[in-house]
Amino acid sequence: MKLLITGGAGFIGANFVHHTLRKHPDREILCLDALTYAGNLETLKGALTADNFKFIKGDIADRETVFSLFESERPDAVVNFAAESHVDRSIDNPDIFLRTNILGTGVLLDACRKYPVRRFHQVSTDEVYGDLPLDRTDLFFTEETPIHTSSPYSASKAAADLLVLAYHRTYKLPVSISRCSNNYGPYHFPEKLIPLMIVNAMADKSLPVYGKGENVRDWLYVEDHCEAIDLILGGGREGEVYNIGGHNERTNLAVVKTILRELGKSESLITYVADRLGHDLRYAIDPKKIGEELGWTPRTGFDEGIKKTVRWYEDNRDWWEGVMSGEYRAYYAKHYGGI
Ligand code: NAD
Ligand code: TYD
Description:
By secondary structure, the chain is α/β, with parallel strands linked by helices. It has one domain: 3-Layer(aba) Sandwich (Rossmann fold). The protein has twelve helices and 13 strands. Strands 3-2-1-4-5-6-11 form a seven-stranded parallel β-sheet, with helices on both faces. Strands 7-10 form a two-stranded parallel ribbon. Helix 6 packs parallel to helix 8 and helix 8 crosses helix 10. It binds nicotinamide-adenine-dinucleotide and thymidine-5'-diphosphate. Residues 6-7, 9-13, 33-36, 38-39, 59-61, 81-85, 100, 104, 123, 125, 157, 180, 182-183, 189 line the site of nicotinamide-adenine-dinucleotide.
């Protein structure tokens, strides 16, 4: 099988590349990635020298690039990870989110119509469901929960999901969608909560917590997400949406305190800063469908996963110092001001 993985130089895409190379050494992997600030070839070190791996630098929203790749390579299946993925950046500048996340997905879908594939899998997010109230811990997102987005990021991902489902209904394209909760683990870009707090704490810098730190996210170790996508590719039903999550809900403050404890650092590093605009209160996934249909269960609990992640950042300083480019430093200074 020849698998096209888009966005494979980013956090989850690269973990999926490594996962697939380990689990399916017979597969040929093509990776298409524009190498934005969030994509880095260092993240693919190891894969780049494999005979069954090929990297192509290119933009999923560039029709010519995508169509000529499909013409020459004829992939059997596509997994689309490529996206602008940071909510805060989408609040500052929605444009690029619309281009990459919506138009880019549309270009890939068109290419799959012209050069038929066995499966187009869209990697989506639980953020398309909006949020749940903090005081209703009995409520969870199911695949039937209405789309109800809050940020330009989640709106762009929801639009892409609707496009994917429309191509299934209209053109009978063999698609599937997964909507996962917040991931964490190796190669996570240090602008997102967990890696940002780890690298700041290691440097004894302030840890910027939005609002009161009461918002709740449902954390999943990235390897468990990769396993779930692999199972959907293998046996997930066409035209279906699968929620992925491991019932690991934590307030942001609890997450930050766990990281500080793990690193032996003081809670005095916590600095409360202005809240995010439109900040979603709580995400919580009901993963019953993927469990019942495909036998998926997460292997890594939060306490174990956070320990592994903290150790990884301690052991891979070169990686995270390397990806924190001038662009990222400028973003950090602008977004967090003087702290
Ligand atoms: P990321 O920002 O770390 O990586 C995105 C990758 O896409 C980068 O390598 C970047 O270079 C590439 N890219 C961006 N624009 C591109 C374009 N126009 N053409 C080609 N490549 C482009 O993101 P991530 O956290 O790995 O997320 C991957 C996917 O998973 C996204 O679709 C995201 O919406 C989804 N998701 C993420 C999470 C999470 O917690 N991080 C949770 C659920 C779903
Ligand atoms: P983030 O990692 O950006 O993921 P998402 O917004 O997609 O869930 O943020 C996770 C939570 O952490 C979210 O509630 C916002 C909060 N947060 C902070 O408190 N401080 C920060 O500096 C960042 C980046 C996030």
